[in-house]
Amino acid sequence: METRRTVLQLAGSTLAAGLMADPVAGAPHAPVALTPASYGDVTLLDGPMLEQFRRQHDTLMAMDEDALLKPFRQRAGLAAPGPDLGGWYNWVRKYNIPADFRGFIPGHCFGQYVSALSRAHAVTGDRATAEKVARLVAGFAPTITAKFYDDYALPAYTFDKINIGLLDAYSFAGVSNALDVLNRATDAALPHLPEKALTRPEMAARPHPNVAFGWDESYTLPENLYLAWKRGAGDRYRALARRFLLDQAYFAPLARGDNVLPGKHAYSHMNALSSAMQAYITDGSAMHLGAAANGFDLIVAQSFATGGWGPNEAFVAPGSGALGDSLDTTHASFETPCGSYGHFKAARYLMSVTGESRFGDSMERVLYNAILGALPMKSDGTAFYYSDYNNIGAKFYHEYHCTCCSGTIGQVVADYGISAYLTRPDAVAINLYAPSQFTWKRGGRTVTLRQTTQYPLAPDIEIAVATPHEETFAVMLRIPAWAGAGTRIAVNGRRFADGPQPGKFFAIRRTWRNGDRIALTLEAPLRLEAVDDKHPGHLAVVQGPLALFAVGPRFLPFHRDELMAVKQASSGPEWRVTTPEGAQTFKPFFAVAQESTRLYQATVG
Ligand SMILES: [Zn+2]
Description:
Blueprint lengths: L1 H20 L13 E2 L5 E3 L3 H15 L2 H11 L34 H15 L2 H14 L14 H18 L5 H12 L10 H5 L16 H10 L5 H8 L3 H9 L10 H18 L2 H15 L21 H8 L4 E2 H19 L3 H12 L16 E2 L16 H11 L1 H5 E4 L2 E4 L5 E7 L2 E9 L6 E7 L4 E9 L8 E4 L2 E2 L8 E9 L4 E5 L4 E5 L7 E6 L2 E6 L8 H4 L3 E2 L6 E5 L2 E7 L8 E2 L2 E2 L3
Parallel strand pairs: 6-10
Antiparallel strand pairs: 1-5, 2-7, 3-4, 5-6, 7-8, 8-9, 9-14, 10-13, 11-12, 11-14, 15-16, 16-17, 16-22, 17-20, 17-21, 18-19, 19-20
Helix pairs in contact: 1-13, 2-4, 2-17, 3-5, 4-5, 4-6, 4-17, 6-7, 6-9, 9-10, 9-12, 11-13, 12-13, 12-15, 15-16, 15-17
The structure holds zinc ion (ZN).
């Protein structure tokens, strides 16, 4: 793979050399090609992404604060009023994993709800949201005790989420004592953490009262520990981050190009790649950049046409046909909110460091085909978990309240804006095409870019530039690798003679004036993607970033050329084809409601 070699060469030479030459005291040590926008600088405009963010924000605001604090108050022996959220969230007398997941990880997603609310405040400036964050932190602080983690199956897992919740409360919601609270929460957790990151087999080899004790995710801790150090929580966090890097069993072999993914728990090992990226960005470790880049490529290589990965929450062996086999055997095809959150973070770090647009191609696949189509969370903790790529699939809520995915959905939808625009001093990169406005502060001046588009249901994207003064910089447009020869770009109606190159950013460098307009038309040819090499007849219809799901109740058999004739009906979220057997409708995942679905069509002849 050409692209992977490029990254590794960067890791081995250019970037590492840059580290030696130009360290900046107190700042991230590694050179970064592009910096993601800040939460407050991007405003989503009317469209499905804004609608999903608002709905999730409303749900988090409606969650009962006593119920959220209850498991912590109970362990601290404090009065604990309010209802049980139930599911994974509350203590239960009879703890019976894996037959019954009630009481699986009490309080685990509290920190993620706090994080999501804090980010939502940073995005919207909503005062009531910041006040709710402040009340939750104030309610949590007096409950802190090391006893919380006595006989607790996943202490690292829960502490990692409390860490990011308190960090985000401090950084994004103005809770000034949140770092002090974090230091006390860290003191309470440390006696319960292992001496180093442990793999699942290593944990299983230790005496443990219950199988769930073998599922802790200490190897995901470094990312947020590095962030704690960078945001001023104290020097010990950097040392803790290094202590929990899963080097020997994971990062070192990945950096060498060894595929150690098969059989590993999917989401947590994607998430661990963000720890590797922080080890690179913060500590300058080129080995960890190589590990993250290779790991990400190996995951993308075993993805479904939706961009999702890890059926039954496990990575598969290349060439085994396991992805195709899963279409008949499971409805747990992709852990969607957690997986999308982990995917977005790793892709954003990699794009930021390498400047390569392909990480954005993979983000938008996961956006439109996975997270944007998640069923909305409810304030009782009911949440969407698995996307279902079964031959007879459907959208469904998880049976337990307050799963992992109820925590990550609020974080990933709050991150839409910061994932859409990235900058460097002389350029702004537009990574996601969505109705939105980016306010770019350049020194003392401000440039505003406003995107108007129905993409991906329509191919046209218009970007209006507003600037009080003439400014010289580049606007970099992500041209997806799938973009067809009809893709074109114009500024103020004048088309560029050279067509943009798919799979790269197209940079328009000029002196911009107020009112300048960029018009981008992305031609999206239809293509067919087999689920894997062992199942060449199981084909997904893909147009641009969209994997198209056939919707039931009836699913036709197809010839390849019939699938290639699938066409969008007007400009809505519906595609159709008619064959001698009848008519079949297709929809992108975000437009699927209660219909039964089939992602991979069975082809005949
Ligand atoms: Zn999850």
